[in-house]
Write a structure and sequence with these properties.
Elements: E1 29-33, H1 38-49, E2 55-61, H2 65-75, E3 79-82, H3 88-95, E4 101-104, H4 106-113, E5 119-122, H5 130-139, E6 142-145, H6 149-164, E7 168-171, H7 174-183, E8 191-198, H8 208-212, H9 216-219, H10 229-237, H11 239-251, E9 259-263, E10 269-275, E11 280-284, H12 290-298, H13 312-315, H14 329-340, H15 344-361, H16 367-382, H17 392-413
Helix pairs in contact: 2-3, 4-5, 5-6, 6-11, 6-15, 10-15, 11-14, 14-16, 15-16, 15-17, 16-17
The structure holds nicotinamide-adenine-dinucleotide and magnesium ion.
Length: about 425
């Protein structure tokens, strides 16, 4: 079997934790990568909620030029960047006479992310967010990280850059924001385990047979959270929880065996940290991403978020169950990729992105998403793929390779 692993990760106690408290306060200037998305617009709703507190420097989007232009105008951004270059004329026209700089393409995204600001909100979906996020690490004091694929694909080198540039990395994913809070500045050797909660998604109580016939609309109906399409499908397959285990591994000073998942259908408890003395600390809130986003913007203090306050008497019951890796194989596949390390998580992510996009286009049976990911990882091993992943370019090459393998697996099926 080919070895997909890179050099061993430094032990948890060698590395300074990325979540160490800092004396820095007060985010003012803000760049939002992925401003038109679910996290992007929730971030902007916090800007609205605190008039005069934040200045938006740059906003970016994939292809929705009109929405991006409206955001740039409303928030008085200095620049707006659209990734899809064919949408540049539309963006330029919509911003004509405003004084806002319109830009397009990959290099322009990197350029915008490189303008020094107090905080960059990394809210692009998928591996497409890697180059601008890496650029932002070199120039901004803080990053709010929603774009979990950055850590899944490039965790080791991403965290090295975070430390090298002394960036305050604030996790935005609700489970990781919860862990960040429950961990506080606890020494690594006092942490027994970190348990991420999972809603179980729309198919939590479905049989394998029902899941095999699930439609796109059924998969997009998340019971608790309103999110972008890709993460909603990942939640239905539970690949999202797999991606989050990998994310947690890179963020926090724990080993793989200290990470766990429990299904908690109400999504009120977001994460539990178990300590060596038997204590378990958790963070609770209504399932609303404005809570973790507010913390990413305000930490180490807190700012108000326009969310519903939790009322446990009204909630009534909190329940828990073990995840079922038979009906949700993506969770098992992601755990295996995390253990394998090296290029495996980036390959897995690439294959998942391709398969999810194909499922969203329609016609692909839901279970084929996880089957494609597993087949790509097997094909990569059989081909003796031992890609080095020491640089961002290596990761991008692995991502391209994974996408090609996934396209060929899907082509063979049809
Ligand atoms: P979304 O699809 O709603 O928004 C994605 C944003 O990225 C949009 O602005 C889009 O225009 C932009 N984008 C898409 N493709 C691009 C490309 N190729 N190049 C540049 N920009 C591109 O997604 P979302 O739900 O906001 O999720 C964003 C990230 O946050 C994901 O990594 C997701 O896993 C993570 N996250 C989201 C939530 C949530 O509640 N939405 C919760 C936790 C984590
Ligand atoms: Mg999450």
């Amino acid at each position: 079997m080919a070895d997909l692993t890179t050099a061993a990760r430094p032990s948890a106690t060698d590395a300074p934790p990325a979540w160490q408290p800092s004396t820095e306060t007060g985010v003012r200037s803000l760049t939002i990568l992925g401003a038109t998305g679910s996290i992007g617009t929730s971030t902007l709703s916090l800007v609205d909620h605190h008039p005069g507190r934040f200045e938006v420097e740059a906003v970016t989007a994939g292809s929705n030029a009109n929405e991006l232009a409206q955001i740039a105008i409303k928030y008085g951004a200095n620049r707006a960047v659209i990734a899809d270059e064919t949408r540049y004329p539309a963006l330029k026209d919509a911003l004509a006479g405003t004084g806002i700089k319109a830009m397009a393409g990959q290099q322009a995204m990197i350029e915008a992310a490189s303008v020094p600001v107090d905080c960059v909100m990394a809210a692009i979906v998928g591996a497409a967010g890697l180059p601008p996020a890496f650029a932002a690490l070199q120039h901004s004091s803080r990053m709010g990280l929603a774009n979990k694929e950055c850590l899944v694909c490039a965790g080791d080198i991403f965290m090295k850059e975070v430390k090298r540039h002394d960036v305050e990395l604030l996790p935005v994913d609700s489970e990781h924001s919860a862990a960040f809070q429950a961990l506080s500045d606890a020494p690594a050797d006092t942490i027994d385990k970190i348990t991420l909660t999972a809603s179980g998604g729309p198919f939590r109580s479905w049989t394998a047979d029902q899941i095999s016939k699930a439609t796109r609309d059924e998969a997009l109906k998340h019971p608790n959270w309103s999110m972008g399409a890709k993460i909603t499908i990942d939640s239905a397959s539970m690949m999202n929880k797999g991606l989050e285990l990998i994310e947690a591994y890179h963020l926090f000073p724990v080993e793989v065996d200290q990470l766990d998942v429990v299904v908690h259908p109400q999504s009120i408890i977001h994460c539990l940290v178990s300590y060596c003395d038997g204590s378990v600390l958790a963070q609770l809130s209504e399932p609303d991403m404005r809570t973790p986003i507010a913390l990413a913007l305000s930490w180490p203090t807190r700012i108000a978020a326009p969310t519903k306050q939790l009322d446990l008497a009204k909630t009534g019951t909190l329940t828990f169950e073990a995840p079922d890796e038979k009906r949700f194989p993506a969770l098992r596949i992601a755990k295996e990729a995390l253990r394998r390390g090296g290029s495996a998580p980036a390959l897995m992510n690439a294959a998942n992105e391709v398969a999810v996009a194909r499922f969203l286009e329609g016609g692909l049976p839901f279970p084929v998403i996880a089957q494609t990911v597993e087949q790509v990882l097997e094909d990569a091993e059989r081909a003796g793929l031992t890609a080095e992943v020491g640089t961002l370019d290596d990761i991008i090459a692995v991502d391209t390779h994974g996408r090609r393998l996934a396209a060929s697996v899907l082509e063979k099926r049809t």
